[in-house]
Amino acid sequence: MTVTIGVHNSNPTLYYLSRLDFAQQELAALGETAAFHPYTNGVRTGELLTDGVIDFGGTGSTPPVTAQAAGHDVVYVAVSAPRPDHGALLVAEDSHVRTVADLKGATVHLAIGSWQTHLVAKSLDEQGLSYATDITAVRSGEDSERLLRSRDIGAWVAQGPQLVAALRTGGVRVLVRTGDVITDRSVFFTRRDLAEQRPEVVAALVRALQRADDWARAHPREAAEIAAGHQGGTADDWETALRALPWRIEDVTDAFLAEQQEAADVFARVGFVERPVRVADAVARTGQDAA
């Protein structure tokens, strides 16, 4: 069996796993092989799993919730430790916006459908505002930072080396630090058939994830140079961003499922998902439950 692992630039663990041999090494002990399927939009992970294009994937907190809402039968298998400094909601330094409540009526640039949606939606919800009606959410692009600095938009969610570079340049201010609102974990999930029928394969992949994290933590400069050469930005900014990540894989716990359920409930209230989601359904059934 060839196990196909989805990889995209937004998930750092999978990004480095695809450039190392750990997945192949772990699967070889089971007589299996690893292959990687690159794609650009992590929001599509649930769809790619259901269609059999990939067998295993990882994203931020939002895509598995929207995948469930779309009817994809995904199963959580592991998560990263919280990433409190991975991103931030920025405003111009001299902006009149001092609190999230001041964003009412503003245009906010973010990676729609990613963990950034969770950050913005929950931040607004805590102030009695709605992601759907009280701001204009626009997908961020290469011009987002320029538009923020020129006051053409009210706020922008930046992450990783983009955030490091923006703060280093100055002229912007952190309105919301990610870790003050959400845990912002990487989330790894698969199809139910693989999770329940081949748990040893899933366990091997989780071990490979931790080995990739161990490598990135031990080799931050090399990791930064790889990312800068492939994705752009400077190696210095990448190294600062990568050093801020926890590089630790954790089990799926009740506390994590509660975090995801809170996000799912916010998304349902504001209409970001078309139907309520029961996050606890996205766990592997064992024993009698799986029969």
> Strand fraction band?
15-25%
Q: Main beta sheet: strand number and arrangement?
A: 5 strands, mixed
**H/E series, N to C?**
EHHEHEHEEEHEHEHEEHHHHEH
Shape: globular
Number of helices: 12
Mean pLDDT: 96
Helical coverage, percent range: 40-55%
Please state the structural category.
alpha/beta
Runs with pLDDT <50, length 5+?
none
Rg from alpha-carbon coordinates: 19 Å
Placed side by side, the strands forming the largest sheet appear as 7-6-8-5-9
Strand count: 11
End-to-end span in angstroms? 24 Å
Overall description:
- The protein is of the alpha/beta class.
- It contains twelve helices and eleven strands.
- Strands 7-6-8-5-9 form a five-stranded mixed beta sheet, sandwiched between helices. Strands 3-10-4-11 form a four-stranded antiparallel beta sheet, sandwiched between helices.
- Helix 5 (115-125) packs across helix 12 (254-270), helix 7 (160-169) packs across helix 11 (235-243) and helix 10 (220-231) crosses helix 11 (235-243).
- The two termini are 24 Å apart.
- The model has no long low-confidence stretch (mean pLDDT 96).
